Amino acid sequence: MLYENRPCRLDFVIFEVSEICFSHLSNVCFLLPWEQWSEVQQMINGTPVYMYQDCSVLSEGDTDHWLRTNWIYRGDAASRIYVELKFTVRDCKSFKGEVVTCKETFNLYYMESEQDVGIQFRRPMFIKLNTVAADRSFTNRDIESGAMQLNTEVCPIGKLSRRGFYLAFQNSGACVAMVSVRVYYKTCPEAVRGLARFPETLAGLEGLTEVPGVCVEYAAEETGSPPKMHCSTDGEWLVPMGRCLCAVGFEEVDGSCVGEYADSGCRPWERFQGAGDQSICKHKVRVGE
């Protein structure tokens, strides 16, 4: 079944190169085409690529054509997500005098919902997100040589509040092909800095999100200066504050605290707590060995 109706999740590619989409969550997601959008294969830089295409510049009838995704499950993920589009648009001048109407732009819409509405297409409920224009358009010569170049556009969608959403593409007179649609959100990755560990953190809608750190093993907070970092809206760690210090008898090595001991009579936790007679440690052995 080519156009199966099933929800998608973040982060995933709705479709790219192959006829189906895929993700690290093993979801298979399909686009639902309406009104003239069709799946075709085209050569791009010598490689056969599947895409959804609509070219109605020679049509004298209705040129308001839509393409909608399946329901994209957001759940408790970030309230700001990003849509990355890869597409081609044909140069209107390459049609010469045979064109009835021609544009070099298309529109991106979205609609939030608490559940999947199936194949129902509630067009008036979709909110316009952006008019997408191509930086590079192609001509007949590019088609013949297979040297068409892809355009890439990233559009953020902020302040989402419902369990999921749909995307829709409206073409009103362009010769356009959608090659890839990727939907994702940004996080600051798990990190260790200043002997403190910081968890993966969702990027906020605006400003910086303060995140407390947890000292690595055999380290403790510097007095009056607990470790903190700030997660930016772009998913980058900024403004580190405070740090942790290795306990007495330990030294910092590659972001961790390493101690040296001799035998079982000189135990790491005794050293960490300041107990035990260090004079009994005669052979150097790293903690954990």
Automatic annotation (TrEMBL):
One annotated GO biological process: cell adhesion
Keyword Kinase among record annotations: yes
Broad class of the protein's primary localization: membrane
InterPro entries per the UniProt record, alphabetical: Ephrin_rcpt_lig-bd_dom, Ephrin_rcpt_TKs, Galactose-bd-like_sf, Tyr_kinase_rcpt_V_CS
Cellular location(s): Cell membrane
Gene3D superfamilies per the UniProt record, alphabetical: ephrin a2 ectodomain, Galactose-binding domain-like
UniProt GO cellular component terms: dendrite; plasma membrane
Topology of the protein relative to the lipid bilayer: Single-pass type I membrane protein
Bilayer-crossing regions: none
Keywords from the named record: Angiogenesis, ATP-binding, Cell adhesion, Cell membrane, Glycoprotein, Kinase, Membrane, Nucleotide-binding, Receptor, Transferase, Ubl conjugation
Superkingdom classification of source: Eukaryota
One GO MF term: transmembrane-ephrin receptor activity
Domain (Eph LBD): residue spans on this chain: 1-193
Alphabetized PANTHER family for the sequence: EPH RECEPTOR A5, RECEPTOR PROTEIN-TYROSINE KINASE
Protein's name in the database: Eph LBD domain-containing protein
Lineage: Eukaryota, Metazoa, Chordata, Craniata, Vertebrata
